Amino acid sequence: MRQIVLDTETTGLEVRQGHRLIEIACVEMIERRPNGRHYQTYLNPDRAIDEGAKQVTGIEDEFLLDKPRFADVVEDFLAFIDGAELIIHNATFDVGFLNAELARLGESYGRIEDRCHVLDTLAMARERYPGQRNSLDALCKRLGVDNSARDLHGGLIDAQLLAEVYLAMTSGQVVLDLGFEGAQEQGAAVALAPITLDRRPRVLRANEAELAAHERRLDALDKSAGGTSVWRRESQSTVQ
Q: Which has the closest alpha carbon to 15: 99, 90, 80, 74?
């Protein structure tokens, strides 16, 4: 399986306001292993960069004046991603900007979704860690990915970090997250000590009142299910 981890930088946040791409960066993985191949280019957007975007990326307008335009690199870029699964954090944002650039060049280029399957790691993280911060920095801290070199948002370093985050999220290892992220961000270490049993655990059996309450609960489940509930059916089959 061929996967491309992709990140972009832009002149601003709203593609509908005419903001443009200023950087595209991609990291290739084959069978879930980064193979060293990458694609990265800065772009001349033919417009000014918002001050907020300059502060986030560190990219100035003057730096982009001699860089290629999207039309100059589109064939190489599409050849690099064609047929791969794209892994993107907040994919709606990046794909929206890419599709807008393609649309400027004509209908023949189609859309990114016509060429690639897109996987959104932000949506994946929100499903796995509901109610928590799921920015790339937050996921790096949660999953133990070293992002100390990320002083500014840069396409290539962000794509490399996202590749590590994606692999950590999908490795099959269970990450125990008990809401200690805030403490970790303040420098507090959270350690889970191994549990050793030196005697047989004591089993507390239900008393008559608890058994009666349990049966009443099963009766209510049966009534709600319009027949024998799954819980009671499984309990009866276990007894038999």
A: 99
